[in-house]
Design goal:
39% helix, binds glutamine, alpha/beta, Amidase signature (AS) enzymes, 15 helices
C-alpha cells in the first residue's frame, strides 16, 4: 500500500489530520513502515507493538470524527525507555528490568496521552541513562543515521536517531547531564532540556534525582515548543515540580534580535574544543550578530570543576536510586540460598559494567570518611556554578555554546576510556547542575558529514526566550536536511 507523505512539521501534520486529508491510522502506518524498514540497522526502538499502535490510531480517528480537537490528536511520538507508559515494558535498556511492565503512566506521558498522542514504541538508550554514546545498552548500540559507523550520542541515542531518521516525528526523553542535547547535536535534531522542575519527573526512572529532567527531541524548535507546552506544569506527584504558569511557548516564537544580548562563555571555547565544532558555533554567533544581536563574552569560571562535581553528585544519587533493584520488587531475579545471595546475584547479572562502575563510585563518594571530601565539596562547586550563571545572565539574556567539545565519533572509539567520555560532557552537565534550561540546535556538518550542534542556555524558566532565539536562528540557517538515505 502506498502511504502518504508525512509533512515535516507537527503543525502541518495536525492541519492535514484536522482537514481529513490524511487519517491517523495512515500516519501511524507510515511510521511503522519506516521503523520496519530501518530499525534493524539503527536499533533505535527496543519495544514496539504494532497492533497497539494501530489501535491507538484508530481511536484517534474516532475522536477526530466525533469532533475531538486535542492538540496532538493522532500525532505519533516515541518514548525513551526510562519513562513509564502503562502496560508497556520499561527496561531502561537494562537486563535487570527484564519482565517489568509499567503499571502507570509517567505524568509527561499521561499529558501527551490526554493531548491525543499515539505512542509508537520505546527507544533505546544507555543503561539507566548512564552514557554519552548509547553503547551502554543491554540491547546493543544505536547507530547514527548520518553514518552507521558512528555513535548517535547518548543517553537518548535511540530517540535522537529515530527523530533524525524520520522514524518518529518527535520523542519524549530525559536529560540528567546532556542526554537530550548531546544526542540531538550528534544526530542533527533539536533537543530541549527544560528548567529543573518545569516538567514533572513522576514516572521517570530516577538516575540522579536532583538533575533529572524530562524533555523532548524534535525536528524543529516549533515542534519542541508545542510539546513542552503540553508536558510542562505543576504536578502534585512531584514535589519538585514548579507552580509557575506555562506560557503558550509555540505562540511566542516570533520576534527579532534587535537589542538581544547573547553571551559567549570564554570557558566553553577553550582548550579541548574541536576546531570544526568551534567554527560552526562561531558561525552561529556571526549570523545572529548580523541580524542585530549583540554578542558579548562572559565568564563562567567554575566550569573547570563541573565534570568532577557532576560525576560525584550523579553517581552518589544513582547509588541510592538504584538500590531498589534487588530482585524483589522489579524485573528479574536470580535465586540464591538466602536473600543476601539473591540480591548479589541479581545485581551482578542484571546491571551492565558502566552502571556497576557508577554505583561503586557513588557509594565510595558517600562513604563515611570520604563524604566531606567528595560529595560535600561537589555540592559546594554546584553552588559556585549556579552563581556563575546568575552573574552571566545579568549581562546577557542567553548563552551560546557548543553542545559537545567533540564531533560525533565512531562506535568503539571512546568506550574503553570512560574518563575521556565523561570529560566530553563538560558543556552539557553545567545546565543540570544549575537547574537552568538549554536547547540544542543543529548548526553544521563535520568533514565526515556528521551533524554538529549549538546550544542556547537560558536562566531558570527562560524557556520562552531560548525557544524564540533558537527559532530565529533556525530560520536564518535554513533547512538542515535529513541523513542521506532517510
Ligand atoms: N553523559 C552523562 C552521564 O552519563 C549524561 C547522561 C544523562 O543526561 N542521562 O551521566
Amino acid at each position: 500500500m502506498a502511504l502518504p507523505e508525512i509533512p515535516a512539521s507537527l503543525r502541518d501534520l495536525r492541519n492535514l489530520l484536522l482537514r481529513g486529508e490524511i487519517a491517523c491510522r495512515d500516519v501511524a502506518a507510515a511510521f511503522l513502515q519506516r521503523i520496519e524498514k530501518h530499525n534493524a540497522c539503527l536499533n533505535a526502538f527496543v519495544h514496539l507493538d504494532a497492533e497497539k499502535v494501530m489501535a491507538q490510531a484508530e481511536r484517534a480517528d474516532e475522536r477526530l470524527a466525533s469532533g475531538g480537537r486535542e492538540p496532538l490528536l493522532g500525532i505519533p511520538l516515541a518514548i525513551k525507555d526510562n519513562l513509564n507508559v502503562r502496560g508497556d515494558p520499561c527496561t531502561c535498556a537494562s537486563r535487570i528490568l527484564t519482565g517489568y511492565v509499567a503499571p502507570y503512566d509517567a505524568t509527561a506521558v499521561a499529558r501527551l496521552r490526554k493531548a491525543g498522542a499515539v505512542f509508537l514504541g520505546r527507544t533505546n538508550m544507555d543503561e539507566f541513562a548512564m552514557g554519552s554514546s548509547n553503547e551502554n545498552s543491554a540491547f546493543g548500540p544505536v547507530r547514527n543515521p548520518w553514518n552507521t559507523d558512528y555513535v548517535p550520542g547518548g543517553s537518548s541515542g535511540g530517540a535522537a536517531a529515530a527523530v533524525a531518521a524520520g522514524l518518529a516525528p518527535a520523542a519524549l526523553a530525559s536529560d540528567t547531564g546532556g542526554s537530550i542535547r548531546q544526542p540531538a547535536a550528534f544526530c542533527g535534531c533539536v533537543g530541549l532540556k527544560p528548567t529543573y522542575g518545569r516538567v514533572s519527573r513522576y514516572g521517570l526512572t530516577a538516575y540522579a534525582s536532583s538533575m533529572d529532567q524530562v524533555g523532548v527531541l524534535a525536528q524543529s524548535v516549533a515542534d519542541a515548543a508545542l510539546l513542552l507546552e503540553v508536558i510542562a506544569g505543576h504536578d502534585v506527584m512531584d514535589g519538585t515540580s514548579l507552580r509557575e504558569e506555562v506560557p503558550p511557548y509555540s505562540e511566542r516564537l516570533e520576534g527579532d534580535l534587535n537589542g538581544v544580548r547573547i553571551g559567549l562563555p570564554r570557558e566553553y571555547y577553550g582548550e579541548g574544543l574541536d576546531k570544526e565544532v568551534r567554527e560552526s558555533v562561531q558561525g552561529v554567533a556571526g549570523l545572529l550578530a548580523r541580524e542585530g544581536a549583540e554578542v558579548v563574552e562572559v565568564d563562567l569560571p567554575s566550569t573547570r570543576y563541573a565534570v568532577a562535581a557532576y560525576y560525584i553528585i550523579a553517581t552518589a544519587e544513582a547509588s541510592a536510586n538504584l538500590a531498589r533493584y534487588d530482585g524483589v520488587r522489579y524485573g528479574m531475579r536470580v535465586e540464591g540460598a538466602d536473600p543476601i545471595e539473591m540480591y548479589g546475584r541479581t545485581r551482578a547479572k542484571g546491571f551492565g559494567p558502566e552502571v556497576k562502575r557508577r554505583i561503586i563510585l557513588g557509594t565510595y563518594a558517600l562513604s563515611s570518611g570520604y563524604y566531606d571530601a567528595y560529595y560535600l565539596r561537589a555540592t559546594k562547586v554546584r553552588t559556585l556554578i549556579r552563581k556563575d550563571f546568575e552573574e552571566a545572565f545579568q549581562r546577557c539574556e542567553v548563552l551560546l555554546t557548543p553542545v559537545s567539545p567533540v564531533k560525533p565519533f565512531r562506535l568503539g572509539e571512546k568506550i574503553e576510556d570512560p574518563l575521556q567520555l565523561y570529560l566530553c560532557d563538560i558543556y552539557s552537565v553545567t545546565a543540570n547542575l544549575a537547574g537552568i534550561c538549554g536547547i540544542a540546535v543543529p548548526c553544521g556538518l563535520s568533514r565526515e558529514g556528521l551533524p554538529l550542534g549549538a546550544q542556547f542556555l537560558g536562566p531558570a524558566l527562560g524557556e520562552e526566550r531560548i525557544l524564540q532565539i533558537a527559532h530565529i536562528y533556525e530560520a536564518l540557517r535554513g533547512p538542515f536536511g535529513s541523513p542521506p538515505g532517510f
